Amino acid sequence: MPGVSSFRTSSSRTARGARTAWTARTARGALAGLLAGFTALAVAELAAGLVRPAAGPVTVVGGAVIDRTPAPVKDFAIRTFGENDKTVLQLGILLVLALFAAVLGVLALRFRRAGAAGVLVFGIVGSAAALSRPDAQGAGDVLPSLVGALAGAGVLYVLAGKAAPADSAAGVDATAGGWSRRGFLTAASVTAAGAAGAGVLGRALSGQRGRGAIASRDALVLPAPASPAPVIAAGARSRVPGVSAFTTPNRDFYRVDTALVVPKVDAATWRLRIRGKGVTSSRSYSLAQLLARPLIERDITLTCVSNEVGGPYVGNARWLGVPLAGLLAECGVEPPSKGGGADQLVARSVDGMTLGSPVEEVMDGRDAMLAVGMNGEPLPFEHGFPVRMLVPGLYGYVSACKWIEDIELTTFDAYDPYWVRRSWARRAPVKTQSRIDTPKPFARPAAGTVMVAGVAWAQHRGIARVEIRVDDGPWQDADLAAQDTADTWRQWSYRWQAAPGGHTVTVRATDGAGAVQTEQRARTIPDGASGWHSVFVTVP
Protein backbone atom coordinates (compact mmCIF):
# COMPACT_ATOMS: atom_id res chain seq x y z
CA MET A 1 0.00 0.00 0.00
CA PRO A 2 1.62 3.28 -1.10
CA GLY A 3 0.23 5.24 1.80
CA VAL A 4 1.50 2.83 4.41
CA SER A 5 4.91 2.61 2.75
CA SER A 6 5.15 6.37 2.62
CA PHE A 7 4.14 6.57 6.29
CA ARG A 8 6.80 3.99 7.29
CA THR A 9 9.47 5.82 5.31
CA SER A 10 8.49 9.08 6.92
CA SER A 11 8.50 7.47 10.38
CA SER A 12 11.91 5.93 9.75
CA ARG A 13 13.30 9.28 8.66
CA THR A 14 11.80 10.92 11.71
CA ALA A 15 13.37 8.28 13.99
CA ARG A 16 16.77 8.68 12.32
CA GLY A 17 16.45 12.43 12.62
CA ALA A 18 15.60 12.14 16.30
CA ARG A 19 18.58 9.85 16.91
CA THR A 20 20.85 12.23 15.01
CA ALA A 21 19.56 15.19 17.00
CA TRP A 22 20.01 13.28 20.27
CA THR A 23 23.56 12.30 19.30
CA ALA A 24 24.40 15.89 18.40
CA ARG A 25 23.00 17.21 21.67
CA THR A 26 24.88 14.54 23.64
CA ALA A 27 28.14 15.34 21.85
CA ARG A 28 27.70 19.05 22.56
CA GLY A 29 26.94 18.31 26.20
CA ALA A 30 30.02 16.09 26.55
CA LEU A 31 32.14 18.75 24.87
CA ALA A 32 30.73 21.40 27.22
CA GLY A 33 31.65 19.18 30.17
CA LEU A 34 35.18 18.57 28.91
CA LEU A 35 35.69 22.30 28.33
CA ALA A 36 34.40 23.00 31.84
CA GLY A 37 36.87 20.47 33.27
CA PHE A 38 39.70 21.90 31.20
CA THR A 39 38.84 25.40 32.37
CA ALA A 40 38.71 24.27 35.99
CA LEU A 41 42.16 22.70 35.80
CA ALA A 42 43.66 25.62 33.87
CA VAL A 43 42.31 28.26 36.25
CA ALA A 44 43.41 26.13 39.19
CA GLU A 45 46.88 25.96 37.64
CA LEU A 46 46.90 29.74 37.41
CA ALA A 47 45.78 30.10 41.03
CA ALA A 48 48.39 27.57 42.16
CA GLY A 49 51.05 29.61 40.38
CA LEU A 50 49.99 32.59 42.45
CA VAL A 51 49.54 30.70 45.73
CA ARG A 52 51.81 27.62 45.75
CA PRO A 53 52.49 25.21 42.85
CA ALA A 54 52.25 22.18 45.13
CA ALA A 55 48.63 23.14 45.95
CA GLY A 56 47.36 22.43 42.43
CA PRO A 57 44.38 20.03 42.44
CA VAL A 58 46.01 17.24 40.40
CA THR A 59 49.03 17.35 42.69
CA VAL A 60 47.11 17.31 45.98
CA VAL A 61 44.59 14.72 44.82
CA GLY A 62 47.41 12.59 43.44
CA GLY A 63 49.28 12.90 46.72
CA ALA A 64 46.17 11.91 48.65
CA VAL A 65 45.72 8.89 46.39
CA ILE A 66 49.34 7.85 46.97
CA ASP A 67 48.96 8.24 50.74
CA ARG A 68 45.84 6.06 50.80
CA THR A 69 47.00 3.41 48.37
CA PRO A 70 47.73 0.06 50.07
CA ALA A 71 51.40 -0.90 50.16
CA PRO A 72 50.98 -3.91 47.81
CA VAL A 73 49.36 -1.67 45.19
CA LYS A 74 52.20 0.87 45.51
CA ASP A 75 54.68 -1.95 45.14
CA PHE A 76 52.86 -3.19 42.02
CA ALA A 77 52.91 0.31 40.50
CA ILE A 78 56.65 0.71 41.04
CA ARG A 79 57.30 -2.81 39.76
CA THR A 80 55.11 -2.34 36.68
CA PHE A 81 55.69 1.30 35.72
CA GLY A 82 59.06 1.95 37.33
CA GLU A 83 59.98 5.61 37.66
CA ASN A 84 57.00 6.47 35.41
CA ASP A 85 54.53 5.53 38.15
CA LYS A 86 53.79 9.18 38.98
CA THR A 87 53.15 10.04 35.33
CA VAL A 88 50.77 7.09 35.06
CA LEU A 89 48.96 8.21 38.21
CA GLN A 90 48.57 11.78 36.94
CA LEU A 91 47.32 10.58 33.55
CA GLY A 92 44.88 8.29 35.34
CA ILE A 93 43.54 11.18 37.42
CA LEU A 94 43.12 13.32 34.32
CA LEU A 95 41.34 10.50 32.49
CA VAL A 96 38.89 10.00 35.38
CA LEU A 97 38.27 13.75 35.57
CA ALA A 98 37.64 13.88 31.82
CA LEU A 99 35.12 11.04 31.98
CA PHE A 100 33.23 12.60 34.87
CA ALA A 101 33.33 16.01 33.21
CA ALA A 102 31.81 14.58 30.04
CA VAL A 103 29.06 12.87 32.05
CA LEU A 104 28.34 16.10 33.92
CA GLY A 105 28.13 17.93 30.61
CA VAL A 106 25.49 15.54 29.30
CA LEU A 107 23.61 15.76 32.62
CA ALA A 108 23.69 19.55 32.42
CA LEU A 109 21.73 19.51 29.15
CA ARG A 110 18.65 18.71 31.19
CA PHE A 111 19.73 19.79 34.67
CA ARG A 112 22.05 22.78 34.33
CA ARG A 113 22.33 23.51 38.03
CA ALA A 114 22.99 19.88 38.92
CA GLY A 115 25.77 19.67 36.33
CA ALA A 116 27.42 22.86 37.56
CA ALA A 117 27.09 21.65 41.15
CA GLY A 118 28.88 18.45 40.16
CA VAL A 119 31.90 20.50 39.09
CA LEU A 120 31.84 22.27 42.45
CA VAL A 121 32.00 18.88 44.15
CA PHE A 122 35.36 18.30 42.49
CA GLY A 123 36.52 21.59 43.96
CA ILE A 124 35.48 20.43 47.41
CA VAL A 125 37.32 17.13 46.94
CA GLY A 126 40.44 18.99 45.82
CA SER A 127 40.22 21.36 48.78
CA ALA A 128 39.86 18.49 51.22
CA ALA A 129 42.85 16.75 49.64
CA ALA A 130 44.91 19.94 49.90
CA LEU A 131 44.18 20.31 53.60
CA SER A 132 44.98 16.63 54.22
CA ARG A 133 48.50 16.88 52.82
CA PRO A 134 51.30 16.72 55.39
CA ASP A 135 52.92 19.80 53.83
CA ALA A 136 49.69 21.86 53.84
CA GLN A 137 50.32 25.53 54.55
CA GLY A 138 46.89 26.66 55.64
CA ALA A 139 43.65 27.80 54.06
CA GLY A 140 45.44 29.29 51.06
CA ASP A 141 46.05 25.79 49.72
CA VAL A 142 42.31 25.33 49.03
CA LEU A 143 42.10 28.35 46.75
CA PRO A 144 43.35 26.69 43.53
CA SER A 145 40.78 23.89 43.76
CA LEU A 146 37.92 26.20 44.73
CA VAL A 147 38.67 28.94 42.19
CA GLY A 148 39.15 26.39 39.43
CA ALA A 149 35.87 24.63 40.31
CA LEU A 150 33.93 27.91 40.30
CA ALA A 151 35.33 28.79 36.88
CA GLY A 152 34.51 25.33 35.55
CA ALA A 153 30.99 25.40 36.99
CA GLY A 154 30.35 28.78 35.38
CA VAL A 155 31.57 27.57 32.00
CA LEU A 156 29.41 24.45 32.16
CA TYR A 157 26.33 26.39 33.21
CA VAL A 158 26.67 28.79 30.28
CA LEU A 159 27.70 26.27 27.60
CA ALA A 160 25.12 23.68 28.64
CA GLY A 161 22.42 26.30 28.38
CA LYS A 162 23.44 26.90 24.78
CA ALA A 163 24.56 23.40 23.84
CA ALA A 164 21.28 22.17 22.32
CA PRO A 165 20.04 23.48 18.93
CA ALA A 166 17.47 26.23 19.08
CA ASP A 167 14.88 23.99 17.44
CA SER A 168 15.39 20.99 19.77
CA ALA A 169 12.50 19.27 21.45
CA ALA A 170 10.57 21.14 24.07
CA GLY A 171 10.82 20.05 27.66
CA VAL A 172 14.59 20.41 27.96
CA ASP A 173 15.20 23.52 29.99
CA ALA A 174 18.68 23.90 28.54
CA THR A 175 17.30 24.71 25.09
CA ALA A 176 15.99 28.13 25.92
CA GLY A 177 18.04 30.61 23.95
CA GLY A 178 20.07 27.79 22.37
CA TRP A 179 22.76 28.71 19.86
CA SER A 180 23.30 27.37 16.41
CA ARG A 181 25.95 24.73 15.99
CA ARG A 182 28.34 27.35 14.64
CA GLY A 183 27.62 29.63 17.56
CA PHE A 184 28.22 26.87 20.08
CA LEU A 185 31.48 25.83 18.44
CA THR A 186 32.62 29.45 18.40
CA ALA A 187 31.88 29.79 22.10
CA ALA A 188 33.62 26.47 22.77
CA SER A 189 36.70 27.59 20.85
CA VAL A 190 36.89 30.89 22.75
CA THR A 191 36.54 29.01 26.05
CA ALA A 192 39.27 26.54 25.12
CA ALA A 193 41.61 29.34 24.06
CA GLY A 194 41.00 31.27 27.27
CA ALA A 195 41.54 28.19 29.42
CA ALA A 196 44.72 27.31 27.56
CA GLY A 197 46.01 30.85 28.12
CA ALA A 198 45.27 30.59 31.84
CA GLY A 199 47.07 27.26 32.02
CA VAL A 200 50.15 28.57 30.21
CA LEU A 201 50.27 31.64 32.46
CA GLY A 202 49.91 29.42 35.51
CA ARG A 203 52.81 27.23 34.40
CA ALA A 204 54.91 30.32 33.81
CA LEU A 205 54.13 31.66 37.29
CA SER A 206 54.96 28.29 38.86
CA GLY A 207 58.24 28.30 36.98
CA GLN A 208 59.06 31.78 38.26
CA ARG A 209 58.46 30.69 41.83
CA GLY A 210 61.18 28.07 41.39
CA ARG A 211 63.71 30.44 39.84
CA GLY A 212 65.14 31.47 43.20
CA ALA A 213 65.83 27.84 44.03
CA ILE A 214 67.40 27.22 40.63
CA ALA A 215 69.56 30.32 40.97
CA SER A 216 70.67 29.28 44.47
CA ARG A 217 71.77 25.89 43.17
CA ASP A 218 73.55 27.41 40.17
CA ALA A 219 75.43 29.78 42.48
CA LEU A 220 76.41 27.14 45.03
CA VAL A 221 80.10 26.30 45.12
CA LEU A 222 80.82 23.16 47.11
CA PRO A 223 83.83 23.37 49.43
CA ALA A 224 86.62 20.84 49.28
CA PRO A 225 86.09 17.95 51.69
CA ALA A 226 88.13 17.80 54.86
CA SER A 227 88.12 14.03 54.40
CA PRO A 228 88.22 13.21 50.66
CA ALA A 229 87.01 9.89 49.33
CA PRO A 230 89.81 7.37 48.89
CA VAL A 231 90.96 6.90 45.32
CA ILE A 232 88.77 4.20 43.77
CA ALA A 233 90.65 0.94 44.11
CA ALA A 234 92.63 -0.16 41.10
CA GLY A 235 90.69 -2.85 39.33
CA ALA A 236 87.34 -1.87 40.89
CA ARG A 237 85.94 -0.91 37.48
CA SER A 238 85.10 -3.85 35.24
CA ARG A 239 85.79 -3.54 31.54
CA VAL A 240 83.20 -6.11 30.52
CA PRO A 241 80.69 -4.51 28.12
CA GLY A 242 77.19 -4.33 29.50
CA VAL A 243 78.09 -4.13 33.19
CA SER A 244 76.70 -1.20 35.19
CA ALA A 245 79.24 1.59 35.56
CA PHE A 246 80.94 1.61 38.95
CA THR A 247 79.81 5.22 39.47
CA THR A 248 76.23 5.87 38.39
CA PRO A 249 75.83 9.23 36.60
CA ASN A 250 73.34 11.58 38.24
CA ARG A 251 71.05 11.48 35.20
CA ASP A 252 70.84 7.68 35.46
CA PHE A 253 70.51 7.37 39.23
CA TYR A 254 67.19 5.83 40.22
CA ARG A 255 64.46 7.95 41.75
CA VAL A 256 61.69 6.45 43.89
CA ASP A 257 59.62 8.80 46.07
CA THR A 258 56.05 10.03 46.49
CA ALA A 259 56.57 13.60 45.25
CA LEU A 260 54.37 14.36 42.22
CA VAL A 261 56.05 17.76 41.99
CA VAL A 262 59.76 17.83 42.74
CA PRO A 263 60.28 20.39 45.53
CA LYS A 264 62.45 23.33 44.53
CA VAL A 265 63.88 24.68 47.75
CA ASP A 266 65.79 27.96 47.86
CA ALA A 267 69.12 27.25 49.52
CA ALA A 268 69.26 30.79 50.90
CA THR A 269 66.13 30.33 53.02
CA TRP A 270 66.46 26.63 53.81
CA ARG A 271 66.95 25.64 57.44
CA LEU A 272 67.44 22.32 59.24
CA ARG A 273 66.04 21.94 62.74
CA ILE A 274 67.30 19.30 65.19
CA ARG A 275 65.14 18.65 68.23
CA GLY A 276 63.62 15.99 70.45
CA LYS A 277 64.56 13.42 73.05
CA GLY A 278 68.11 13.82 74.31
CA VAL A 279 68.74 17.09 72.44
CA THR A 280 70.02 19.60 74.99
CA SER A 281 68.38 22.46 73.12
CA SER A 282 66.77 22.66 69.69
CA ARG A 283 69.13 23.93 67.03
CA SER A 284 68.69 25.32 63.55
CA TYR A 285 71.29 25.25 60.77
CA SER A 286 71.46 27.11 57.48
CA LEU A 287 73.14 25.61 54.45
CA ALA A 288 76.03 28.04 54.84
CA GLN A 289 76.57 26.84 58.40
CA LEU A 290 76.64 23.22 57.29
CA LEU A 291 79.05 23.97 54.45
CA ALA A 292 81.37 25.70 56.92
CA ARG A 293 81.78 22.45 58.84
CA PRO A 294 84.36 19.78 57.97
CA LEU A 295 82.82 17.72 55.18
CA ILE A 296 83.41 14.10 54.23
CA GLU A 297 83.37 12.62 50.74
CA ARG A 298 82.47 8.96 50.27
CA ASP A 299 81.46 6.49 47.56
CA ILE A 300 78.24 4.87 48.78
CA THR A 301 75.75 2.57 47.07
CA LEU A 302 72.08 3.27 47.76
CA THR A 303 69.29 0.73 47.34
CA CYS A 304 65.52 1.12 47.35
CA VAL A 305 63.48 -1.40 49.32
CA SER A 306 61.14 -1.62 46.30
CA ASN A 307 63.94 -3.16 44.25
CA GLU A 308 62.95 -6.61 43.00
CA VAL A 309 65.56 -9.35 42.69
CA GLY A 310 67.65 -8.27 39.71
CA GLY A 311 65.93 -4.87 39.68
CA PRO A 312 67.27 -1.43 38.67
CA TYR A 313 66.70 0.56 41.87
CA VAL A 314 70.30 0.55 43.07
CA GLY A 315 73.11 2.96 42.23
CA ASN A 316 76.53 4.06 43.38
CA ALA A 317 77.60 7.70 43.69
CA ARG A 318 80.24 9.88 45.31
CA TRP A 319 78.56 11.88 48.07
CA LEU A 320 79.77 14.99 49.87
CA GLY A 321 78.25 15.87 53.21
CA VAL A 322 78.31 16.64 56.91
CA PRO A 323 78.93 13.65 59.22
CA LEU A 324 75.58 13.15 60.93
CA ALA A 325 76.85 11.45 64.08
CA GLY A 326 79.08 14.40 64.98
CA LEU A 327 76.27 16.87 64.39
CA LEU A 328 73.95 14.90 66.67
CA ALA A 329 76.60 14.53 69.33
CA GLU A 330 77.06 18.31 69.42
CA CYS A 331 73.33 18.56 70.13
CA GLY A 332 73.69 16.25 73.11
CA VAL A 333 72.41 13.05 71.46
CA GLU A 334 73.79 9.71 72.66
CA PRO A 335 73.08 6.33 71.04
CA PRO A 336 71.07 3.81 73.06
CA SER A 337 74.20 1.71 73.67
CA LYS A 338 75.64 4.66 75.61
CA GLY A 339 72.51 5.46 77.57
CA GLY A 340 70.72 7.70 75.08
CA GLY A 341 66.97 7.82 75.46
CA ALA A 342 66.15 8.08 71.75
CA ASP A 343 66.39 4.99 69.55
CA GLN A 344 64.73 6.48 66.44
CA LEU A 345 65.68 9.49 64.34
CA VAL A 346 62.69 10.83 62.42
CA ALA A 347 63.68 12.85 59.37
CA ARG A 348 61.05 15.13 57.80
CA SER A 349 61.07 16.46 54.26
CA VAL A 350 59.70 19.78 53.04
CA ASP A 351 56.88 17.83 51.37
CA GLY A 352 55.87 16.22 54.66
CA MET A 353 57.48 12.80 54.12
CA THR A 354 58.75 11.14 57.32
CA LEU A 355 61.48 8.49 57.52
CA GLY A 356 62.62 6.71 60.67
CA SER A 357 66.24 5.63 61.16
CA PRO A 358 67.74 3.69 64.09
CA VAL A 359 69.91 6.06 66.12
CA GLU A 360 72.35 3.27 66.97
CA GLU A 361 73.21 2.65 63.31
CA VAL A 362 73.40 6.36 62.54
CA MET A 363 76.00 6.84 65.30
CA ASP A 364 77.93 3.53 65.16
CA GLY A 365 80.83 4.91 63.13
CA ARG A 366 79.54 4.37 59.59
CA ASP A 367 79.55 7.31 57.19
CA ALA A 368 75.99 8.51 57.81
CA MET A 369 75.75 12.04 56.48
CA LEU A 370 73.68 15.01 55.48
CA ALA A 371 74.70 15.09 51.83
CA VAL A 372 75.05 18.34 49.91
CA GLY A 373 76.86 17.06 46.84
CA MET A 374 76.52 14.14 44.42
CA ASN A 375 79.22 13.13 41.95
CA GLY A 376 81.01 16.46 42.20
CA GLU A 377 78.04 18.82 41.93
CA PRO A 378 75.29 20.14 44.22
CA LEU A 379 72.49 17.65 44.65
CA PRO A 380 70.07 17.62 41.70
CA PHE A 381 66.59 18.79 42.71
CA GLU A 382 65.13 15.33 42.13
CA HIS A 383 67.72 13.87 44.48
CA GLY A 384 67.12 16.22 47.38
CA PHE A 385 68.69 19.66 46.87
CA PRO A 386 69.79 21.37 48.99
CA VAL A 387 70.35 18.62 51.59
CA ARG A 388 69.44 14.97 51.91
CA MET A 389 70.27 12.31 54.46
CA LEU A 390 71.80 8.90 53.81
CA VAL A 391 72.99 6.04 56.00
CA PRO A 392 75.10 3.29 54.41
CA GLY A 393 73.69 -0.20 54.88
CA LEU A 394 70.04 0.77 55.31
CA TYR A 395 67.35 0.81 52.64
CA GLY A 396 66.41 4.29 51.46
CA TYR A 397 62.96 4.37 53.06
CA VAL A 398 64.53 4.32 56.54
CA SER A 399 67.62 6.39 55.83
CA ALA A 400 67.68 8.54 52.70
CA CYS A 401 65.33 11.47 53.37
CA LYS A 402 65.43 13.95 50.48
CA TRP A 403 64.72 17.68 50.87
CA ILE A 404 65.21 17.22 54.61
CA GLU A 405 64.29 20.11 56.91
CA ASP A 406 63.70 18.58 60.35
CA ILE A 407 65.26 15.88 62.52
CA GLU A 408 63.42 14.73 65.61
CA LEU A 409 64.93 12.31 68.12
CA THR A 410 62.27 9.99 69.51
CA THR A 411 61.58 6.27 70.00
CA PHE A 412 60.20 3.52 67.79
CA ASP A 413 57.42 2.97 70.32
CA ALA A 414 56.37 6.62 70.25
CA TYR A 415 56.15 7.27 66.50
CA ASP A 416 55.50 5.37 63.26
CA PRO A 417 56.89 7.12 60.15
CA TYR A 418 55.13 7.20 56.78
CA TRP A 419 56.20 3.80 55.44
CA VAL A 420 55.87 1.96 58.75
CA ARG A 421 52.23 3.04 58.87
CA ARG A 422 51.90 1.35 55.49
CA SER A 423 53.12 -2.11 56.55
CA TRP A 424 56.85 -1.77 55.90
CA ALA A 425 59.35 -2.85 58.56
CA ARG A 426 60.67 -0.42 61.19
CA ARG A 427 64.27 -1.49 60.67
CA ALA A 428 65.59 -2.39 57.24
CA PRO A 429 69.24 -3.34 56.76
CA VAL A 430 70.12 -3.93 53.12
CA LYS A 431 70.02 -7.61 52.16
CA THR A 432 72.87 -9.30 50.33
CA GLN A 433 71.98 -9.21 46.63
CA SER A 434 73.55 -9.84 43.23
CA ARG A 435 72.42 -9.13 39.69
CA ILE A 436 73.33 -10.35 36.21
CA ASP A 437 73.72 -7.36 33.89
CA THR A 438 74.89 -9.30 30.84
CA PRO A 439 73.72 -11.31 29.00
CA LYS A 440 70.20 -9.94 29.14
CA PRO A 441 67.19 -12.24 29.61
CA PHE A 442 66.30 -14.16 26.43
CA ALA A 443 69.54 -13.11 24.74
CA ARG A 444 70.97 -15.31 22.00
CA PRO A 445 74.76 -15.33 22.49
CA ALA A 446 76.96 -17.30 20.14
CA ALA A 447 78.39 -20.61 21.28
CA GLY A 448 81.82 -20.45 22.86
CA THR A 449 83.09 -18.01 25.47
CA VAL A 450 80.31 -15.82 26.82
CA MET A 451 81.05 -13.19 29.44
CA VAL A 452 78.51 -13.30 32.26
CA ALA A 453 78.88 -10.22 34.44
CA GLY A 454 77.08 -7.95 36.85
CA VAL A 455 77.17 -6.36 40.29
CA ALA A 456 76.65 -7.51 43.88
CA TRP A 457 76.05 -5.46 47.01
CA ALA A 458 75.75 -5.78 50.77
CA GLN A 459 76.32 -2.25 51.98
CA HIS A 460 78.38 -1.89 55.16
CA ARG A 461 79.35 -5.57 54.99
CA GLY A 462 80.89 -5.76 51.54
CA ILE A 463 81.01 -8.65 49.07
CA ALA A 464 83.49 -11.51 49.61
CA ARG A 465 82.42 -13.97 46.92
CA VAL A 466 80.17 -14.32 43.86
CA GLU A 467 79.24 -17.67 42.32
CA ILE A 468 77.62 -18.67 39.04
CA ARG A 469 75.58 -21.76 38.22
CA VAL A 470 74.56 -22.82 34.72
CA ASP A 471 71.37 -24.89 34.68
CA ASP A 472 71.68 -27.49 37.48
CA GLY A 473 75.46 -27.63 37.39
CA PRO A 474 77.84 -26.91 40.25
CA TRP A 475 78.46 -23.42 41.59
CA GLN A 476 81.58 -21.82 40.10
CA ASP A 477 83.47 -18.82 41.47
CA ALA A 478 83.21 -15.64 39.45
CA ASP A 479 86.12 -13.23 39.09
CA LEU A 480 85.66 -10.27 41.40
CA ALA A 481 86.69 -6.74 40.59
CA ALA A 482 88.54 -5.09 43.44
CA GLN A 483 86.40 -4.15 46.44
CA ASP A 484 86.40 -0.37 46.71
CA THR A 485 84.80 -0.14 50.15
CA ALA A 486 82.29 -2.18 52.12
CA ASP A 487 79.70 0.51 51.33
CA THR A 488 79.88 0.16 47.54
CA TRP A 489 78.70 -2.51 45.17
CA ARG A 490 81.22 -4.88 43.61
CA GLN A 491 81.46 -5.82 39.97
CA TRP A 492 82.09 -9.43 38.93
CA SER A 493 82.48 -11.50 35.76
CA TYR A 494 82.57 -15.15 34.69
CA ARG A 495 83.81 -16.75 31.45
CA TRP A 496 81.19 -19.27 30.46
CA GLN A 497 81.87 -21.83 27.76
CA ALA A 498 78.40 -21.84 26.28
CA ALA A 499 77.09 -24.88 24.43
CA PRO A 500 74.11 -24.74 22.06
CA GLY A 501 70.67 -24.93 23.65
CA GLY A 502 68.60 -23.14 26.22
CA HIS A 503 70.31 -22.36 29.51
CA THR A 504 69.47 -20.75 32.85
CA VAL A 505 72.31 -18.80 34.43
CA THR A 506 72.01 -18.01 38.15
CA VAL A 507 74.11 -15.86 40.47
CA ARG A 508 74.51 -15.67 44.25
CA ALA A 509 76.81 -13.66 46.51
CA THR A 510 78.44 -14.06 49.90
CA ASP A 511 78.86 -10.93 51.99
CA GLY A 512 81.82 -9.83 54.07
CA ALA A 513 80.30 -11.36 57.19
CA GLY A 514 80.23 -14.80 55.54
CA ALA A 515 76.46 -14.93 54.97
CA VAL A 516 75.44 -16.52 51.67
CA GLN A 517 72.66 -14.84 49.75
CA THR A 518 69.49 -16.79 50.42
CA GLU A 519 67.67 -18.70 47.73
CA GLN A 520 64.34 -18.13 49.49
CA ARG A 521 62.18 -15.81 47.45
CA ALA A 522 60.56 -12.92 49.27
CA ARG A 523 58.59 -9.92 48.05
CA THR A 524 59.81 -6.42 48.64
CA ILE A 525 57.26 -5.93 51.45
CA PRO A 526 57.99 -5.62 54.36
CA ASP A 527 61.80 -5.36 54.38
CA GLY A 528 63.18 -5.96 50.91
CA ALA A 529 63.20 -8.70 48.28
CA SER A 530 65.37 -11.79 48.48
CA GLY A 531 66.25 -14.72 46.22
CA TRP A 532 68.70 -15.54 43.47
CA HIS A 533 68.70 -13.68 40.17
CA SER A 534 68.77 -15.76 37.01
CA VAL A 535 68.42 -15.22 33.27
CA PHE A 536 67.42 -17.62 30.53
CA VAL A 537 69.38 -17.47 27.27
CA THR A 538 69.37 -19.47 24.07
CA VAL A 539 72.67 -20.37 22.40
CA PRO A 540 72.01 -21.07 18.68
Describe this structure in words.
- It is a single chain.
- The chain is α+β, with helices and mostly antiparallel strands.
- It has 11 helices and 18 strands.
- It has helices at residues 2-51, 57-68, 71-81, 85-110, 112-132, 143-162, 181-209, 211-219, 287-291, 324-330, 359-362; strands spanning 271-276, 283-286, 296-303, 314-323, 344-349, 354-358, 369-374, 377-378, 388-390, 404-410, 433-438, 448-457, 463-470, 476-477, 479-480, 490-498, 501-511, 533-539.
- The strands form 4 sheets. The chain has a 5-stranded mixed beta sheet with strand order 2-1-10-5-6. Strands 3, 4, 7, 8 and 9 form a 5-stranded antiparallel beta sheet that branches.
- β1 (271-276) and β2 form a beta hairpin.
- α4 runs antiparallel to α5 (112-132).
- The chain is globular.
- The N and C termini lie far apart (77 Å).
- Mean pLDDT is 89; it is low at 165-177.
Write the layout of secondary structure elements.
Elements: H1 2-51, H2 57-68, H3 71-81, H4 85-110, H5 112-132, H6 143-162, H7 181-209, H8 211-219, E1 271-276, E2 283-286, H9 287-291, E3 296-303, E4 314-323, H10 324-330, E5 344-349, E6 354-358, H11 359-362, E7 369-374, E8 377-378, E9 388-390, E10 404-410, E11 433-438, E12 448-457, E13 463-470, E14 476-477, E15 479-480, E16 490-498, E17 501-511, E18 533-539
Parallel strand pairs: 1-10
Antiparallel strand pairs: 1-2, 3-4, 4-7, 5-6, 5-10, 7-8, 7-9, 11-12, 12-16, 13-14, 13-17, 15-16, 17-18
Helix pairs in contact: 1-4, 1-6, 1-7, 2-4, 2-5, 4-5, 4-6, 5-6
